[in-house]
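ok here's ADF-H domain-containing protein:
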Amino acid sequence: MAALKRTVDLSSEEIQQAWQDVRSDAAETNWVLLTYGDNGEIILCGKGSGGLNEMRKKLKDNQIYVGVIRVRAVDDYGSQRAKFVYINYVGVAV
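and the structure:
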């Protein structure tokens, strides 16, 4: 694995679109997963609408990942809000 960069570049269209999708109330997307490419750059590993179970299928033991899952929170009065869960995963073989 290449040396990791100190700056993070999330400007690729693919990453930007995935982030917009996971944040959108209109989109089905409820998770996005990023990892490091061969040159140490941040790349989109996947996105989907199947929640944590679907995201987990993308994880490999020899990689580092950063992910976000969108969940729906309901309070005692029935008000619903989107909440975002940040996930940092370091595989056991890293």
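+1. The beta strands are 31-36, 42-48, 64-74, 80-90.
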